[in-house]
Every structure is written in structure tokens, then in C-alpha cells.
């Protein structure tokens, strides 16, 4: 199994970790922290491949900082 079938539950789990770290976080704060914490694709067009890989640790850290 690959693609969005696996990405969705992984991202949902990361959001659960983020909400555990900051229960008052808004959806916009979570979205921004996920984007800011992503590991970017090097040499790839983000319009084709997306914004990068979700980095759970960095997303939680960004949410706590924000």
C-alpha cells in the first residue's frame, strides 16, 4: 500500500501528537506548523510533488513555538 492511503493515517496521528502538545491549537495553527516543519523536496517542483515530507518532531516544535 502506498500514496494517500498511507499518508492520511500517518498525518492524522501526527496531528493527534500536536494536539496533545497544545490542546488549544486551531486548525490553521496546525496546518501552518505542518507546512513549516516539513522536510522539503530538493530539486522537485512543489506544484507536482507537494510541499515535502511531514516531520512530526519539527511540526510539534513549531506548534509549541507559535
From TrEMBL:
Highest rank taxon of the organism: Bacteria
The UniProt record lists the keyword Heme: no
Pfam families according to UniProt: Peptidase_S8 (PF00082)
GO BP of this protein: proteolysis
Domain Peptidase S8/S53: 1-52
UniProtKB keywords: Hydrolase, Protease, Serine protease
A molecular function (GO) term: serine-type endopeptidase activity
Gene3D superfamilies named among the record's database cross-references: Peptidase S8/S53 domain
Family per record: Belongs to the peptidase S8 family.
Name recorded for this polypeptide: Peptidase S8/S53 domain-containing protein
Amino acid at each position: 500500500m502506498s500514496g494517500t492511503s498511507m499518508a492520511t493515517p500517518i498525518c492524522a496521528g501526527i496531528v493527534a501528537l500536536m494536539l496533545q502538545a497544545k490542546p488549544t491549537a486551531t486548525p490553521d495553527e496546525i496546518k501552518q506548523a505542518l507546512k513549516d516543519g516539513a522536510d522539503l523536496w530538493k530539486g522537485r517542483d512543489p506544484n507536482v510533488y507537494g510541499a515535502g515530507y511531514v516531520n512530526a518532531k519539527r511540526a510539534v516544535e513549531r506548534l509549541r513555538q507559535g
